[in-house]
Amino acid sequence: MFAAENGLKGDPRLKAISDAITVVPHFPKPGIMFQDITTLVSNHKVFKHTVEIFVDRYRDMDISVVAGVEARGFMFAPSIALGIGAKFIPLRKPGKLPGEVISEAYELEYGKDRLEMHVGAVKPGERALVIDDLVATGGTLSAAIRLLGELPNLCLRLHIVYDLLLQTYCGYCDSGWLERNGAEVVECACVIGLPELKERRLLNGKPLYVLVEPREL
Amino acid sequence: MFAAENGLEGDPRLKAISDAITVVPHFPKPGIMFQDITTLVSNHKVFKHTVEIFVDRFRDMDISVVAGVEARGFMFAPSKALGIRTKFIPLRKPGQLPGEVIAEAYELEYGKDCLEMHVGAVESGERALVIDDLVATGGTLPATIRLLERNGGEVVECACVIGLPALKERRLLNGKPLYVLVEPRA
């Protein structure tokens, strides 16, 4: 849902945020009207507004994890995590996180990419947010949701029982699901979202919260 | 200079920060003892200490720009910029920033890499900080300093969470003061 339809209608901070975004035509390739948020984060007052809006929204929602998507998500997510007293978890490109990771593939316009997260970065049942600068098709956020583990707890418990049975009677364990972290993604939040998402309040079954639409030239 | 020798000797926050770092041997290649700060940023209290120490230090230094280096620098620099009420400027890998950029190459152990910054991101004479998670040989930070200066900025200090002990002898990096919170964990 867009912030203006969810309690912030007419809030002057939203206009200031939108005005602070720079549109760069045909980047990174022809036809794309790139929404450049560097002019937002270099405007202290507007950057502060952006963080405040998210902190005000999530402060009392019992969130313990704020996950940010590399790299532009890293510009927003840590400050939100600090503001609401949650841990910040980076979701990174392949090969960047040391130690044991899980990964999810997602579609790009041409080809695929992957996102990785540390095993054990979140505990089962923790309530999590996913933060990125912009949501278009939702491919990246969907991968983030899968990494954090949107399995309903009942499903996780059933898999635990299934694994115990396998171990007892067959001597092996199919722990693929247990390797997922099992957090509950409460909402995905982005500064910018495509207008067609207004019709689609959920992304992979998860609520989506967006501050502004893309700017036009 | 290290924080413990610059007013924060015995500060329990420094020990907490050091303890929150995880050492990962032989990553990304054999022989490297990687200092993983993800366990620091996932510890809210310690992450908050890190921000507070930097904000307390730089709050009254008339800084107007905080530059952070992609990508781990992005985990630390924006919150510092917000804390001292300045602009945040990202320094990015090639091809990531749209529009007009300037670039600086720097040496890696094997080969070269490049860092880019928007033209006009800082105004002439603006006082700038550079923030990164770790400084080792200082390949990235000197490139950052050069980028900011080419845009007319004055780099006041480079600040990192972790710095190699060898840097204790070397208070300056490319002629700029260096401020570090802790040594690498063993």
TrEMBL record, chain A:
One of its GO terms (molecular function) is adenine phosphoribosyltransferase activity. GO terms for cellular component: cytoplasm. Pfam families: Pribosyltran. GO terms for biological process: purine ribonucleoside salvage. Pathway: Purine metabolism; AMP biosynthesis via salvage pathway; AMP from adenine: step 1/1. Keywords: Cytoplasm, Glycosyltransferase, Purine salvage, Transferase. Belongs to the purine/pyrimidine phosphoribosyltransferase family. This is adenine phosphoribosyltransferase. It comes from Salvia divinorum.
UniProtKB/TrEMBL annotation, chain B:
Its main location: cytoplasm. GO terms for cellular component: cytoplasm. It catalyses: AMP + diphosphate = 5-phospho-alpha-D-ribose 1-diphosphate + adenine. Keywords: Cytoplasm, Glycosyltransferase, Purine salvage, Transferase. Its EC number is 2.4.2.7. Pfam families: Pribosyltran (PF00156). Residues 39-168 form the Phosphoribosyltransferase domain. The keyword Transferase applies. It is an enzyme of class 2 (transferase). GO terms for molecular function: adenine phosphoribosyltransferase activity. It comes from the Eukaryota. One of its GO terms (biological process) is purine ribonucleoside salvage. It is found in: Cytoplasm. Pathway: Purine metabolism; AMP biosynthesis via salvage pathway; AMP from adenine: step 1/1. Belongs to the purine/pyrimidine phosphoribosyltransferase family. Homodimer. This is adenine phosphoribosyltransferase. It comes from Salvia divinorum (Maria pastora). The gene is APT5.
